[in-house]
Amino acid sequence: MANTVLVSTPASVNEISTGKNQDAQEDSNIAPSTRRSSPSVPQTSASWMSCVQSSLINQGVTGEPLNTILESWRSGTRKQYHTYVSAWVKFSSDNSISPMNPTLQQVLEFLSFQSKTVGYSAVATARSALSTFIKIDGVKVGDHPLVSRFMSGLFNQKPALPRYTETWNPQIVLNYLKTYPTTGNLSLKQLTQKLVMLMALLSAQRTQTLQKLSLEEMRASPGKYIFHISSLLKQTSAKGGQNRHLFPITFTSYNVDKRLCVVELLTVYIERTASLRKSTKQLLICYVAPHGPASKDTISRWVRQTMKDAGINTSVFKPHSTRGAATSAAKAANVPIHEIMNTAGWRLDSTLAKFYDRPIINESNFAEAILTSSSQ
């Protein structure tokens, strides 16, 4: 559960401001229309949360309702928004703009200024951040028709292209995992990395989700392990209906090739880490002393290293690409779409189509096939 946000006594915008910045210098890249004569400008260190809090207080929202509203933004979103609101506050200070009550032109100038150094998606995040506490003409600034039109024009100038236009073949990594020693002869490092890589591919989950796997929420039965996850995840949504929470993650035995049996690996892993994990109930722990719970970044590093060792180009494909590789391979193998969606935790099939369904890189190509046939 997220930490409760402590709210100070109601304050006006001026109470989080420093007054006019006497040392503000003109920026030749900013049009004169973005300047006002005597605004109240928050310190450049003012947080995004303080801006949102001040906006809500000005609307008459205080106390526990205010705390609850502030909890509606998760930590990842807060970190993203803080970056761009800090840039906005500095921009406002440098150009003598009221950060809480700017004009439409001033907001557009800021977004244009940001677009000189970042891409469309980052500018879109900046727009969303400002929309949490700025209204113009009675609407959130991000919903203003001219802001929307500006973003359309920016997209035409700087198209937001997908990170991947194709994905790697999971079979490459699976073949590499087959070369590991037998399960009983694996070092703890090898056991951990092989297990994590298989779980990432077979569940099509983010490393964030793998980190949340817990022995307390695990159910074991012959040939099967089922993990329930009660923690908030990126895909957890109050608007998801029956799919608001991730379906239980199930790992089943694979008797066709024991070298790729995740259940066998899990059984051995749980046994070998029992004496190392002390009081932690998190499934994945570090394989080096003091064997604490593995962080999301550590798990990502394990996945990246295994991908690299298997021959995947990790300068192009990041650990998160396991999700796209697995779901694209499943779709190519004619796995029903609803099963892919339930496994990956998606509510809309458009998510698969838009972000993850990519052609799998084929090591051979048309020309090579023609040349090969001619030599036969």
What does this structure look like?
- 45% of the residues lie in helices and 4% in strands.
- With 376 residues, it is mainly α.
- The protein folds into two domains: 13-157, Tyrosine recombinase, N-terminal domain (DNA polymerase, domain 1, Orthogonal Bundle); 170-356, hpI Integrase, Chain A (Orthogonal Bundle), CATH 1.10.443.
- The strands form two sheets. Strands 3-4-5 form a three-stranded antiparallel sheet.
- Helix 7 (170-177) packs across helix 11 (296-310), helix 8 packs across helix 11 (296-310) and helix 8 (188-203) crosses helix 12 (321-332).
- The longest helix is centred in the first third of the chain and has 20 residues, at 75-94.
- The radius of gyration is 26 Å and the shape is elongated.
- The N and C termini lie far apart (65 Å).
What topology does this entry show?
Blueprint: H1 48-58, H2 63-70, H3 75-94, H4 104-115, H5 120-131, E1 135-136, E2 139-140, H6 145-157, H7 170-177, H8 188-203, H9 207-212, E3 218-221, E4 224-227, E5 249-252, H10 262-273, H11 296-310, H12 321-332, H13 337-344, H14 349-356, H15 366-374
Antiparallel strand pairs: 1-2, 3-4, 4-5
Helix pairs in contact: 3-5, 4-5, 7-11, 8-10, 8-11, 8-12
Provide the descriptors you would attach to this structure in a database record.
single chain; 376 residues; mainly alpha; DNA polymerase, domain 1; hpI Integrase, Chain A; 3-stranded antiparallel sheet; two-stranded antiparallel sheet; 15 helices; disordered N terminus
What is the CA-atom radius of gyration, in angstroms? 26 Å
What helical percentage do the residues reach?
A: 40-55%
What is the total tally of β strands? 5
Low-confidence stretches: 1-45, 348-357, 363-376
CATH first level of the largest domain:
Mainly Alpha
The average pLDDT value, as a whole number, equals 75
What percent strand?
A: under 5%
Strand order of the largest sheet: 3-4-5
Characterize the main sheet: 3 strands, antiparallel
Name of the CATH superfamily of the largest domain:
Intergrase catalytic core
Total count of helical runs of at least 4 residues:
15
Structural class: mainly alpha
Give the domain tally: 2
Q: According to CATH, what is the topology of the largest domain?
A: hpI Integrase, Chain A
Task: Indicate the CATH architecture of the largest domain.
Answer: Orthogonal Bundle
* Strand and helix order: HHHHHEEHHHHEEEHHHHHH
User: What characteristic shape results from the CA principal axes?
Assistant: elongated
Span between termini: 65 Å
